[in-house]
Structure formats: C-alpha cells, structure tokens
Design brief:
Length: 68
C-alpha cells in the first residue's frame, strides 16, 4: 500500500489540516526521529502571544504572513 501524501515523513500537512500555518512565512517544520511533523511558530520566540506549537488547524492568526 502506498502512503498518502499526508503520511510521508517530513512533509507539511495539507492546508486542510494545518490551516494558515501551512502557508505562513513564520512556520518552521520540525521532524521527530520517528518521522512525525510538527509546525513551530517562530513568532513564539519573540512574542508570548503566539504558542510554540499551535493546535491545528489554525483558522485565524494575527501573526499570519503569506510565505514566499
């Protein structure tokens, strides 16, 4: 059985599961040793209003900025 695109280690979840984080310039993909992917909000490093690992999907965020 071929894994679906959402089950491949190292890939960001699709926008339907990650919401705004999937396309935000402030996201950093973190991959565990077991292949799980977590979305780190880099704004959390300088602004306590932003959670380090926001619960997904994020539908609204004052720090959202479209990635390039």
């Amino acid at each position: 059985m071929t894994p679906s695109p959402t089950d491949r280690p190292g890939e960001l979840p699709p926008a339907s599961r990650a919401g705004l984080c999937a396309t935000c310039r402030h996201v950093q993909r973190i991959e565990s040793a077991k292949g799980s992917v977590f979305l780190l909000c880099t704004l959390s490093k300088t602004d306590p209003r932003f959670p380090k690992y926001p619960p997904q999907p994020v539908r609204a965020c004052s720090g959202f900025s479209a990635g390039s």
